[in-house]
Queue: 2 jobs
Job 1
Amino acid sequence: MSLGEILQGILSNDKITGAIASSILIILFGYYLRKREVLTKETSKMLSTVILSVSLPALAFKAFMQDINQESLAQGINLLIWGFAIYIILILITKIIYVKYEGDKQSVLRVLTVFGSTTFFGIPIIAAVYGTEGVMYASIFNIAYRVFLYSYGYVKMAGLKMDKENVKKMILNPIVLATFFGMFIWVFQGSLPQVIVGDKAYAFLRLDKTAYWLYKPMTYLGALCSPLAWISIGAKLADISLKEAFTSVDSWFYSLVKVIFVPLVNIVALYLLTVSGILPISFVALATVVIMMATPTATVAAAYAIKFDREALLTSNGSLLSTVLCVVCMPFWIIVLEVIKSLNIFA
């Protein structure tokens, strides 16, 4: 199959083109609403709170409401391993990438590169393109992200040892709780007390089968995640000066590393691990990792920089520019992934 035929197949896939168009158009709609002051700055913050405390936890939990098999379990374990491995790798290689920078500037650029907006930006796109399987894999992969963000990221930015309050935030985060509870049900559903539904037995915590009246509200809350996140991203873009960010050489260098180089490293590494049989992963698992790693600056990482007065201006400019670049490049990455899929390298 030629490249032209592959691209034609991608462009004729309504699910892919619909997801790409939806994300871009709704982000622009959020930008328009903020510029016209239909949305206030406080409203944008409230949207973010709803997404992070209600919608994303519901999406993460319900993604695990599915049957388990050896293949999906193996993929989950491999993604969990790779999640911890890639963050260690990024922590090491960012030292080389930003070797020309010194002091706070180097520390900030390294942390901002290691941690992207996987939860707020990545998962909504994954949900739109790859459905519940992608969200489940994303939730598993994100476990390592949470561990390193609230440990390495905090310590590096604060210049302090890990404190009790930050550990509490990491453990009691609604998304973390929903992920671990959902994953527990998914992994141990065969060992939990069973309920007969129709002619088949299910774990009593499989709410999609045993308590649909509880499961259905979660589907509505989870469905809010993508549109609300995209509106919030557009509103955030409207509050920052594009001109200032676009004239910052350091912000451009950081943004290109974050949105282009980091996902490319993941593609190459996972290709080598898969063909060698060391850590084989499926196409959906690969796509999940690439989209998660192609996201812009993590909100929490940016908040650390501003809170501890570590290159706040560079952080703000880098956050804006990487977000704009991500919006532009995300369709490119989805197309690249579909080309990879057509090569049948990943199962």
Job 2
Amino acid sequence: MQIVSREGMQAIDRHAIEQIGLSGTLLMENAGRSIFYHLQSILGKEEKIGVIIGKGNNGGDGFVIARHLMNQQYSVEVWVVAEAAALVGDCAYHQKVFERCGGVCHYLSDEGLDALKAAWASWDYIIDALLGTGAKGAPKPPYREVIQAMNLSQTAIISVDLPSGIPANGGHFTHEGVKAEKTLTLQCPKRAQFTYPAANYFGKVTVVDIGIPKCSITVGAEGVSQYTQADFIRSFPKRKRSAHKGDHGRGLMIAGSDRMPGAAVLATRAALRSGTGLLSVNTTESVKAILATQAIEAMFDPFDCTEDATVGEALSKYDAVAFGPGVGRSQQVELTLIRLLEHTKGPLLLDADGLFYLKNHLERLRKRSEPTLLTPHPGEMARLVGKSVREVENDRFGLSRRFAKDYGVYLILKGPFTIITAPDGTQWVNTTGNPALATGGTGDVLTGIVLSFIMQHETLISALCNAVYLHGYAADVLVRSLKGMTGILASDVIHMLPQALGELVPVDK
């Protein structure tokens, strides 16, 4: 499903109206009616519903919703946060239709905010149809005061398209927006749903199809899609009955140090649990002793990663190489990074400390002809692009796309709603995971899954998207089974991987 920006959604609407010939009033009717059909599964006939309407297209949707509610004998009350004369275009058209059908509008300019507050004290639901994707900047009076009052009320709020006041593209903002319990977004998910702080305001999101033609949606598509369970199932490789270990990859994990042995253990075990055929580990002697008891299926390859004369031959045995979890920061680590960039002949995955020195070698990165995969969290991404973490979080989509295209890499920008970006700039947003993953070591687990999957999948982008999806899904299974998020460890996620895979792709009987 395509995720769109404010500009993308506007392009979709323009194409549907100007090129296809669908009138704005018809699109508004479709939107309001589709929202109404969904509301029927939420609202009861005995409940009182208030629809708060602005003067733009979002308000026009509100008039259509109110009319259909009224026609089906719901108890509905309409308040307009604008003077009647301020309503124009398609919004004014549907206001007149609503009133001709017997609807009554209360105008904030006539009755005042106190009267509105008194009215919604008896409502069970507020339908927020104040401001839509066209709104920019902080809401102005009286919208600002109405939004503040709505948030202080005890009434459940259902927002139309997006919570009023929230910028459709997300990013940093400091003004107040509606805090919805549910958001019924029109036709396509909006970028704001997948960035913070905006995502905090949406509540549970449902995408409502309003009948815009696919050709119009294509016009506004910007190469960003949600990655869903259907995508995982479609692209996950099936194992042949005749399969042997060599069919599922021979991987190398360069990880761990005397100070951080656990990272190597987590990444190695995750790779094994994700279906790697054969896995070797290059690490320190002290870590080997620990791994020998914690990941008995792994092998060891003790070659010197910094030795230019032999590293190429040593690396040639492997289908893919991962470098970084727990290796620490030293001159030797930086030299290892250089050798890997120069000599790895297959996919090279860089994570954690393997990314620390990469900023010093971006030209080497750009010149690599073999695939390179990076898995930074926002802090590591900030170092790579020379910006602050806040700047990264404010432009997750844009920064990821520019970096991936500029350096020709596959990029996984971790965090809530992890973004996976291909070298051509195409992006996918992950739809699994929860705050239980916000604990040390879960990034190492993801590295192991990614290494395993890039050796098993037909395409690298399927491998990356599926690895991120499985990582989050395993955490979701844990939370469901434990009925809580606190106290879950990275090793628990590894333990859950086989069950998660079994749920996603059960074995054919």
